[in-house]
# Entry
Amino acid sequence: MEEKTDLLETWDYIRKNFVMNNLANLIDRKFFILGMMTAFAECLAYECKKAAFSPPFYPEDYGIVRPEAEKIAQDQGIYLWYEKNLDIPENTRVNWFVMYKFQEVLDEYKTIREQGFNPAWDFEKFYDLLSYGTVWGKGAYNIVPKMRKKKLTEDTVARVLFKPGDWPIKKT
# Structure
Protein backbone atom coordinates (compact mmCIF):
# COMPACT_ATOMS: atom_id res chain seq x y z
CA MET A 1 0.00 0.00 0.00
CA GLU A 2 2.87 2.34 0.79
CA GLU A 3 4.20 1.96 -2.77
CA LYS A 4 0.82 3.06 -4.19
CA THR A 5 0.81 6.13 -1.95
CA ASP A 6 4.28 7.06 -3.19
CA LEU A 7 3.08 6.79 -6.81
CA LEU A 8 0.02 8.90 -6.09
CA GLU A 9 2.11 11.49 -4.30
CA THR A 10 4.59 11.48 -7.18
CA TRP A 11 1.77 11.87 -9.71
CA ASP A 12 0.21 14.68 -7.66
CA TYR A 13 3.60 16.44 -7.48
CA ILE A 14 4.12 16.11 -11.26
CA ARG A 15 0.56 17.25 -12.03
CA LYS A 16 0.80 20.32 -9.77
CA ASN A 17 4.18 21.35 -11.18
CA PHE A 18 3.03 20.77 -14.75
CA VAL A 19 -0.03 22.96 -14.25
CA MET A 20 1.93 25.64 -12.41
CA ASN A 21 4.64 25.75 -15.08
CA ASN A 22 2.10 26.03 -17.88
CA LEU A 23 0.14 28.74 -16.08
CA ALA A 24 3.32 30.66 -15.36
CA ASN A 25 4.09 30.76 -19.10
CA LEU A 26 0.56 31.51 -20.25
CA ILE A 27 -0.35 35.06 -21.17
CA ASP A 28 -3.80 35.53 -22.64
CA ARG A 29 -3.48 37.66 -25.80
CA LYS A 30 -6.90 39.32 -25.43
CA PHE A 31 -6.25 40.46 -21.89
CA PHE A 32 -2.70 41.52 -22.69
CA ILE A 33 -4.08 43.82 -25.41
CA LEU A 34 -6.88 45.14 -23.19
CA GLY A 35 -4.52 45.67 -20.25
CA MET A 36 -2.18 47.77 -22.35
CA MET A 37 -5.14 49.68 -23.77
CA THR A 38 -6.39 50.41 -20.26
CA ALA A 39 -3.01 51.81 -19.22
CA PHE A 40 -2.77 53.94 -22.37
CA ALA A 41 -6.37 55.12 -21.97
CA GLU A 42 -5.58 56.43 -18.51
CA CYS A 43 -2.55 58.31 -19.87
CA LEU A 44 -4.75 59.86 -22.55
CA ALA A 45 -7.58 60.68 -20.17
CA TYR A 46 -5.21 62.63 -17.92
CA GLU A 47 -3.48 64.15 -20.94
CA CYS A 48 -0.05 62.63 -20.30
CA LYS A 49 -0.03 61.45 -23.93
CA LYS A 50 -1.59 62.91 -27.06
CA ALA A 51 -2.24 59.54 -28.71
CA ALA A 52 -1.55 55.86 -28.26
CA PHE A 53 -1.84 52.75 -30.37
CA SER A 54 -3.32 49.59 -29.02
CA PRO A 55 -1.00 46.64 -29.41
CA PRO A 56 -1.27 45.37 -33.00
CA PHE A 57 -3.49 42.37 -33.52
CA TYR A 58 -4.56 40.04 -36.30
CA PRO A 59 -7.69 41.18 -38.19
CA GLU A 60 -9.58 38.11 -36.96
CA ASP A 61 -9.05 39.33 -33.36
CA TYR A 62 -11.08 42.50 -33.96
CA GLY A 63 -14.43 41.01 -32.95
CA ILE A 64 -12.91 39.60 -29.78
CA VAL A 65 -11.16 42.80 -28.68
CA ARG A 66 -13.59 45.50 -29.89
CA PRO A 67 -16.43 45.27 -27.34
CA GLU A 68 -14.22 45.58 -24.27
CA ALA A 69 -11.94 48.13 -25.98
CA GLU A 70 -14.99 50.33 -26.57
CA LYS A 71 -15.96 50.01 -22.89
CA ILE A 72 -12.46 51.02 -21.81
CA ALA A 73 -12.59 54.06 -24.10
CA GLN A 74 -16.01 55.05 -22.79
CA ASP A 75 -14.92 54.60 -19.16
CA GLN A 76 -11.88 56.85 -19.71
CA GLY A 77 -13.56 59.46 -21.91
CA ILE A 78 -11.39 58.82 -24.94
CA TYR A 79 -12.02 57.68 -28.52
CA LEU A 80 -10.89 54.81 -30.71
CA TRP A 81 -10.30 54.74 -34.43
CA TYR A 82 -9.81 51.34 -36.04
CA GLU A 83 -6.77 51.22 -38.32
CA LYS A 84 -7.35 48.52 -40.95
CA ASN A 85 -3.91 48.94 -42.57
CA LEU A 86 -5.02 48.27 -46.12
CA ASP A 87 -1.50 49.22 -47.25
CA ILE A 88 -0.11 46.08 -45.57
CA PRO A 89 -0.45 42.94 -47.71
CA GLU A 90 -3.41 40.84 -46.58
CA ASN A 91 -1.29 37.78 -45.75
CA THR A 92 0.78 39.79 -43.21
CA ARG A 93 -1.77 42.43 -42.18
CA VAL A 94 -2.24 43.48 -38.57
CA ASN A 95 -4.56 46.12 -37.21
CA TRP A 96 -4.70 48.37 -34.16
CA PHE A 97 -6.78 51.06 -32.57
CA VAL A 98 -5.59 54.64 -32.58
CA MET A 99 -6.51 55.94 -29.14
CA TYR A 100 -7.02 59.69 -28.66
CA LYS A 101 -8.91 62.29 -26.65
CA PHE A 102 -9.03 65.19 -29.10
CA GLN A 103 -10.12 65.13 -32.75
CA GLU A 104 -7.12 67.17 -33.90
CA VAL A 105 -4.87 64.35 -32.73
CA LEU A 106 -6.66 61.82 -34.94
CA ASP A 107 -6.49 64.34 -37.79
CA GLU A 108 -2.72 64.59 -37.27
CA TYR A 109 -2.43 60.79 -37.37
CA LYS A 110 -4.43 60.63 -40.61
CA THR A 111 -2.28 63.37 -42.14
CA ILE A 112 0.90 61.40 -41.43
CA ARG A 113 -0.72 58.27 -42.88
CA GLU A 114 -1.80 60.19 -46.00
CA GLN A 115 1.87 61.07 -46.54
CA GLY A 116 2.48 57.35 -47.01
CA PHE A 117 3.85 56.50 -43.57
CA ASN A 118 2.68 53.48 -41.60
CA PRO A 119 3.64 52.93 -37.94
CA ALA A 120 4.45 49.29 -38.77
CA TRP A 121 7.38 50.49 -40.91
CA ASP A 122 7.90 54.15 -40.03
CA PHE A 123 7.25 54.27 -36.30
CA GLU A 124 9.62 57.18 -35.71
CA LYS A 125 7.37 59.43 -37.84
CA PHE A 126 4.71 59.03 -35.13
CA TYR A 127 6.93 59.75 -32.09
CA ASP A 128 5.67 63.31 -31.52
CA LEU A 129 2.06 62.21 -31.89
CA LEU A 130 2.66 59.45 -29.33
CA SER A 131 4.47 61.89 -27.01
CA TYR A 132 7.73 59.93 -27.19
CA GLY A 133 10.53 62.15 -25.96
CA THR A 134 8.30 65.21 -26.14
CA VAL A 135 6.53 67.33 -23.60
CA TRP A 136 3.24 69.02 -24.29
CA GLY A 137 0.51 70.80 -22.38
CA LYS A 138 0.46 73.63 -19.88
CA GLY A 139 3.95 74.62 -18.74
CA ALA A 140 5.68 72.39 -21.31
CA TYR A 141 8.04 75.20 -22.26
CA ASN A 142 9.68 74.86 -18.81
CA ILE A 143 10.76 71.27 -19.41
CA VAL A 144 13.67 69.99 -21.46
CA PRO A 145 12.69 66.47 -22.55
CA LYS A 146 15.39 63.85 -22.87
CA MET A 147 15.99 60.22 -22.15
CA ARG A 148 18.44 59.72 -19.30
CA LYS A 149 19.71 56.40 -20.64
CA LYS A 150 18.70 54.58 -23.78
CA LYS A 151 18.73 50.80 -23.35
CA LEU A 152 18.18 47.91 -25.68
CA THR A 153 14.77 46.36 -25.00
CA GLU A 154 13.03 43.14 -25.95
CA ASP A 155 9.77 43.20 -27.88
CA THR A 156 7.23 41.78 -25.44
CA VAL A 157 4.34 42.64 -27.77
CA ALA A 158 5.75 40.51 -30.59
CA ARG A 159 6.59 37.65 -28.23
CA VAL A 160 3.11 37.53 -26.68
CA LEU A 161 0.82 38.48 -29.55
CA PHE A 162 2.27 37.02 -32.72
CA LYS A 163 3.38 33.78 -34.25
CA PRO A 164 7.15 33.70 -34.78
CA GLY A 165 8.13 35.78 -37.81
CA ASP A 166 4.85 37.74 -38.03
CA TRP A 167 6.36 40.91 -36.42
CA PRO A 168 7.91 43.17 -37.46
CA ILE A 169 6.06 43.23 -40.76
CA LYS A 170 8.30 43.24 -43.79
CA LYS A 171 7.79 46.28 -46.00
CA THR A 172 6.99 45.25 -49.57
